[in-house]
Amino acid sequence: MRPALAAFLMSVIPISAAAEPRLFDVAWREIKKGVFVGGRDDPLRYPVVANTTIVIGKKGVLVFDGGGYAAQGEQVLAKIRAETKKPVTHLVISHWHGDHHRGAHPIIDAFPDAEIIAHEFACAAMLDGPERRVEEGEAGLDGLYKEISAAVERGKWFDGSELSEPENAYFARMVADFPEYKAQLARMKVLTPTMAPKETITIDLGKRKATLFHAGLGNTAGDLALYLPKEGLLATGDIVVAPVPYGFGSYPKEWARVIRQFAALPVGTIVPGHGAIMTDKSYLLRLAELLEDIARQADAANSGPAGATPETDFAAHEPAFTQGDPVKARLFAMFFKEPIVAAAANEARGEIAKNEPLDGDASALCPIER
Ligand SMILES: [Zn+2]
Question: What is the fold of 19-362?
Fold first, then answer.
């Protein structure tokens, strides 16, 4: 190529655009030999993308959270093909929220004999009202994104609060990312689990054992974590999410107990549902203390005078999660504070069935236990 032409081309190729990772691009890390974690480096960008863990045994491959979007599931499948000739024998779904399974179908298309495993409640929620209500909400996304776009234009959020410059940039990118998000939503598919355990089970992958750990009510009523005792690895699903936890439909008092059980395990690698891999338990302990405090406040409010609804106070904990960053503070309010206040009140009143209502009975919806 003539130097003048090369110089011309370099001046017109948008270098900055090439540097920006695509919305659903995941990066891979090998944690131990044959154990890989894939996740998007920016955990806050919307829509959020869940971490995937691949475990290669002598007999087969286990995938934990194979992808919420088909573009992600395809990358997981490509990574497996690049690392091994062994078949995928188990696809595990940590919980029913779509960002953990609705894009995993490319893996099952390639390995149709693989067991698809979700907790009984998660399986029921995927096939029943909880998933259906999410899809009904998604039908209105065009309108919602128009409103977000208008909020960016006027520099004020829906509630009238001022959007700082970083918040404005965050929501502007969210609007710009919408067409790609929508294209992936059109490809989503809810798989039907073939195994729906109610309790902890262990799977032998050949020279490698994987425990699917159910420790009680937590972020949902049907969470499974992946525990590899020999490798000292725990993948938590959304029981642990960083830097900002998700509170929707959860059970803060019981959730804290689950995290305390996790914190007692001899693990050196913790893969959260979203966010960077952790090598110590400090975030788990912070999260447990936050949830315990919320549950305590909900219990106190419930035993107080009828009609009084004291505000939940997050002040003792919030700076450790948001570090004063306005975007994190906004997301902490939207994804955690608002939903968890309602969830904690239901839990304090003993009305937990209101948090993730099923239309039918879980064991009737998912009668698949081996
Ligand atoms: Zn998630």
Answer: Metallo-beta-lactamase; Chain A (3.60.15)
CA distances from 113 to 7, 33, 87, 162 (A): 53, 25, 9, 52
10 C-alpha to ligand 1 centroid (Å): 40
Q: Where are the domains of the chain?
A: 19-362
Distance 100 CA to ligand 1 centre (A): 6
Distances (CA, A) of 91 to 95, 108, 133, 204, 356: 12, 8, 24, 14, 24
CA of 50 relative to ligand 1 center, distance in Å: 5
Distance 3 CA to ligand 1 centre (A): 49
| Cα–Cα distance measured from residue 193 to residue 128, given in angstroms and rounded to the nearest whole number | 13
> CA 152 to CA 167: how far, in whole Å?
9
pTM recorded for the entire structure: 0.93
CA of 305 to the centre of ligand 1 (A): 37
Per-run averaged pLDDT (10 residues), the chain, 370 residues: 52 55 96 97 96 98 98 98 98 98 98 98 95 95 97 95 96 97 97 96 97 97 97 98 96 98 97 98 98 94 72 93 96 96 93 91 76
Joined together, the tokens standing for residue 10 give: 């370099």
CA of 314 to the centre of ligand 1 (A): 22
Rounded Cα gap, residues 102 and 69, in angstroms: 6
CA of 137 to the centre of ligand 1 (A): 17
CB atoms within 10 A of CB 158: 10
Using the mean position of ligand 1's atoms as its centre, give its distance from the Cα of residue 205 in Å.
26
Cα 133 to averaged position of ligand 1 atoms, centre (Å): 17
CA of 212 to the centre of ligand 1 (A): 17
